Amino acid sequence: MACRCRQAARESPMSKEHVYGVALLSNAMHQSGYAPSLAQHPRLRVLVLADDPGQESIVVQRNQELADLLGVPYIEAVDAALNWPGVEVASVCPQIERRGDLVQRAAVSGKHLWLDKPLAPTIEDCTAIVEALRRTGQKSSVVSHLGYDHIQQAQRQIAQGKIGDILAIHADVHFAKGTPDRTDSPPAPPAPLGRWTYRPPDGVSDPTQSGHSVIAKRELYEVGYYAVVHIRYLSGLPVEGVFARAGAHFFQAHAERGIEDFATLELTLAGGAVATITTGRIGRASHPAGGANHITVIGTQGTLLLDTRRQTAELCSELSEDSGPTTLRRDDNGDALVSHFVRVLDGDEPAWADAEAGRAHVATMLAGYESVGTGAVVRPQFG
Q1: How much is the pLDDT for 321?
Q2: Which domains does the chain have, with CATH numbers?
Q3: Eight-class DSSP state of 188
Q4: Using CA atoms, how far apart are residues 211 and 259, in angstroms rounded to an integer?
Q5: Nearest alpha-carbon partner for 303 in 288, 314, 312
Q6: Residue spans of the chain under pLDDT 70
Q7: CA dihedral (373, 206, 6, 73) positive or negative
Q8: Which of 8, 268, 348, 373 could covalently link to 343 via disulfide, CB atoms 3.0 to 4.6 Å apart?
Q9: For residue 78, what are the CA distances in angstroms to 27, 33, 91?
Q10: Cβ-contact 220, 293 below 8 angstroms
């Protein structure tokens, strides 16, 4: 069944401008969440969905279902999709374990990249991706929550100096999904990094309510990513030190595999500012609207309070007459990110979070994992 939005998109006045052809590479993870926004944009046209042969049956099924929904062919030949007539953009969304290889292949092929988060599992992979994009000169954008208008409004207020210099940021990013079932049995020893996602034996149930049939996954990497992105974007400051803790489990599936479902991080930012994060998957009954998603930015002259669930921003400042709560338009983050991506492709504005920023986010989270293991403050490494 072809996506109904296609006909409406073609009738838009913008359809007379250049239309970028898109290849979707794998629906193993979040592609089905992004594809509708990509397909509906009048400047983008999804042409093909592809994956490597030999994937799990659930991944093959998800690939075929999404291709059928969009009315495009599904092929088990990534290189053929990257050379498909008219393809200029690759949307790359495989399992985290495969992401480094698949993104590098797309980057080397000379395509612009729409990238699932996090960018890749290792700094070496991230660096190879960044260097390939530098060689080809192509654009990239890593998925985030930066499309929400209250985040953009907050960034503008900070840039305008309305809270003075940033002293501290705190972010709570929680996903209220799944049913907590932790038992009294001791957790397994911490598992080494390398495997990020665990699917259920039947391949189709989804106890974590992830949307892509997962029984457990490393939530610092999956959920904590959003907090790390917000802090770097709003502050504009690189992270110089990370201290992290993980292991207070809500879910038995995480505990018995030795992976975290909840974590806390303390970050030292350049110039002496600090940031703190609590993040993870905490159970669907813990919050009425999908989980707490709050950011507090404290400056020398004021404070910003952001709530992503309500999509509100409150400014309390000695330097501005705009102090007080402001409810901003309730944007769809995906649609806003895609519209921004098209403007990036056109050269109209820089990416909010490109592959180079994505590498910095990965470096911060990997430093967090190292800190959990060593109990020490760790400086992010960029390879």
Answers
A1: 66
A2: 5-138 (3.40.50.720), 149-331+355-374 (3.30.360.10)
A3: P
A4: 20
A5: 314
A6: 1-16, 320-331, 383
A7: positive
A8: 348
A9: 13, 20, 12
A10: no
